[in-house]
Amino acid sequence: MFNQIKTWAKGLKKNIYVLYLAYKDPRVPWYAKVFTICVVAYAFSPIDLIPDFIPILGYLDDIILVPLGIMLALKMIPKDVIAECEMKAQEMMSKGKPKNWIAGSIILVIWFLILIWILKMIYFR
């Protein structure tokens, strides 16, 4: 059972890289790009919708939302684009984890702005 979970997790990781590569492809429709960017950003984001420290519910978003988003995004993208991106993703994974500091910084800035907005709404009504 542990090996099945490990294989499933590696498949999710590969699919995240596939989506990361696919959203840059000009053959992907704009609505699929927008959805794909949201899924990839959420998957790579260090901040979850439901914090992991909340028992059981904290991991539900990682177990349900991310795979569901991946599945939906893959259905929106043309099959030939997915096939090409799967080969590129396999190459990327064999070389090691890619690091995109710009994307990570943008995600953190967005979450920070959301936090400021929430605090402003709470304290400055």
Automatic annotation (TrEMBL):
Record GO cellular component, one term: endomembrane system
Q: Where in the cell is it found?
A: Endomembrane system
Name this polypeptide is given: DUF1232 domain-containing protein
Regarding the membrane, this protein is recorded as: Multi-pass membrane protein
> Which segments cross the bilayer?
30-47, 101-123
| All residue ranges annotated as the DUF1232 domain in the record | 32-68
User: Which keywords appear in this protein's UniProt record, sorted alphabetically?
Assistant: Membrane, Transmembrane, Transmembrane helix
One of this protein's Pfam families, by short name?
DUF1232
Organism encoding this protein: Neobacillus rhizophilus
Say if the entry is tagged with keyword tRNA-binding. Answer: no
